[in-house]
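Homework help board

Subject: predicted structure for assignment chain

Our instructor gave us this sequence and asked us to write out the predicted structure in token form, then describe one feature. I got the tokens but I'm not sure how to describe them. Can anyone check?
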Amino acid sequence: MKRNLVFALTLLAVIVAPLSANDRDDDRTFRTRLTGYNETSLTINTNASGEFKATISEDGTQIRYEETWRDLSAPVTQSHIHFGRPAITGGIVLFLCTNLNNTPAGVPVAQPCPTTNPATITGTLTAADVIALTNGQSIDSGATGFAEVLRAFKARAAYVNVHTTLHPSGEIRGQLGQHHDFDHHDNGRHEEHDHH
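My token output:
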């Protein structure tokens, strides 16, 4: 009897441990699908689409990201993470790439955006990359601002935007949400679900 109990507890630990690890990963993973329908202040009708995935390091000091886009109507000029709720325009808090040589002073120079279409970029962001917002949105710089940006991710108050020469305000955009906020469908794309 005791041997059976030990076996059952061992089996339970083997099953539960990976689930717990996956739950932790889901809590640190944020995704979005980028489309023109999410753009503000004007909705954009475009064939372009993209995906963005961000994973927060276990110690909360880094964001590793991958961004992909395709079928853009014009060359990419820049891409950022903005602080803003759905359907609201917000300030830039993190640069992902730029071809405009416009990375703000005091933060590391952003990587160039690929000139190919489709394209994928990857990178790692830290507290040094955070751009303080002095426009009334009150995002700080440095480690304090990085923690504020991570809270915005969790509150669905941050979005990714890809800007092009034809659409300088943005051609495709997506609101960041946690991994479990997205369902996988037969067409292989992610569909975003707002929880009110």
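Reply (TA_rk): Your tokens look well-formed. For the description, you could write something like this. Residues 5-24, 180-196 have pLDDT under 50 and may be disordered. That's the kind of observation they're looking for.
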